[in-house]
From TrEMBL:
Superkingdom of origin organism: Bacteria
Annotated InterPro entries: Glyas_Bleomycin-R_OHBP_Dase, Glyas_Fos-R_dOase_dom, GlyoxalaseI/FosfomycinResist, VOC_core
Gene Ontology molecular function, alphabetical: dioxygenase activity
PANTHER family the record matches: GLYOXALASE FAMILY PROTEIN, VOC DOMAIN-CONTAINING PROTEIN
Organism of origin: Paracoccus sediminis
Name of the featured protein: Catechol 2,3-dioxygenase
Pfam family, any one: Glyoxalase
Keywords, comma-separated and alphabetical: Dioxygenase, Oxidoreductase
Ranges of residues in domain VOC: 12-141
Amino acid sequence: MTTAVPTAAPPALGTLESALYADDLDAALAFWRDVMGLEPFQTAPGRHVFFRVAPMQVLLVFNPAATEQPPRPDARLPVPPHGARGPGHFCLAVPAAEMDHWRDHLTARGIVIEADFHWPNGARSIYVRDPAGNSIELADPAIWG
């Protein structure tokens, strides 16, 4: 008996979760909740804080020192180790008409605007840093066509 090899990958629904890493989860919580307006829905002190971005999209912020460790042999949820060092990148889709509002909102909260420009197709991006040094982009979804 032979097993047929599929010719194409099964469909994906989209991006469900994205991860950033931060040594100081309290600072990450304050930034993502109080500045960016995302609601945390799960926390594990010293390990992670998770935020809902949209109905089927979440932002996972992990302490890399905790997630680089392999799971215990008896772990109920044996998630493989993962982590990153150095700045990551995360982009939030923002309506084009709200870009100035976002810039004013961030500036009023003492967040330094690292870059603010229009791409060749006219769509705009604003870049800031979160407390962990990750590059956070707010972009008009039209940057991708």
